[in-house]
Write a structure and sequence with these properties.
Elements: E1 3-7, H1 14-27, E2 31-34, H2 41-58, E3 62-65, H3 68-74, E4 78-81, H4 88-95, E5 100-106, H5 109-118, E6 122-125, H6 144-151, E7 156-158, H7 164-172, E8 177-180, H8 182-185, H9 191-203
Parallel strand pairs: 1-2, 1-8, 2-3, 3-4, 4-5, 5-6, 6-7, 7-8
Helix pairs in contact: 1-2, 1-9, 4-5
């Protein structure tokens, strides 16, 4: 778990979603998460299934945001849960020891400790910067990454308004993965734009 953690946007256009995702996967992605909060059940199933097939093609782990039953139905690689979802311990007990279970910890080390104790595979912190996707208080300090690396024996993900430029100080502090949506998808109208964005994120981890 090191590098670009690609999270999908709330796009109903499945063809475009798959096209941009495949371009990014070709460029190099460490982990792919399907996140579409407003999709209808059938659309969510179809998009997740198609994305899973792409992830398998490129050998990238594929997880689903929130929807545990969908993860089980598709035999995806795991789920990501937020603060208002089922607890990490509940999800781990349901999915078993072999699935990935990620946890949103916002700017709260207590949540990270609870997630680790519950069997999380990684902890995610943020937002650190304003986001085009989610509205939240931008209050997470950059140095929470340093604290997490000292105290939590799990990979550390950073999320929230991530660009290659503002992710750099977080990677320098020890972040293992940078989660991005808009920097890849919302700027991705031509193949070169996707490739450039992915390359710039991956260069953060090249050293």
């Amino acid at each position: 778990m090191r590098g670009l953690y690609l999270v999908t946007p709330n796009w109903d256009d499945t063809d475009r979603l798959l096209d941009i995702t495949e371009q990014a996967l070709h460029g190099g992605v460490a982990l792919l998460q399907y996140r579409h909060k407003s999709a209808e059940v059938q659309q969510r199933r179809e998009q997740a299934g198609a994305l899973l097939a792409l992830a398998r093609k490129y050998g990238v782990p594929f997880i689903i945001n929130d929807f545990i039953a969908l993860c089980e139905e598709l035999d995806a690689d795991g789920v990501h849960v937020g603060g208002l979802d089922a607890s990490v311990a509940q999800v781990r007990a349901r999915l078993g020891k072999d699935k990935i279970v990620g946890a949103s910890c916002y700017g709260d080390m207590a949540l990270a400790r609870t997630a680790e104790a519950g069997g999380a595979s990684y902890v995610a912190f943020g937002g650190f910067y304003p986001s085009l996707v989610k509205k939240y208080p931008v209050t997470t300090p950059l140095d929470i990454v340093l604290e997490a690396k000292r105290e939590i024996a799990l990979p550390c993900v950073v999320i929230g308004g991530m660009t290659p430029e503002n992710a750099a100080p977080l990677v320098a502090r020890g972040a293992d993965m940078v989660a991005a949506i808009s920097s890849v998808f919302n700027n991705a109208y031509e193949a070169d734009d996707v490739n450039i964005a992915v390359q710039q994120f991956n260069q953060l981890f090249a050293a």
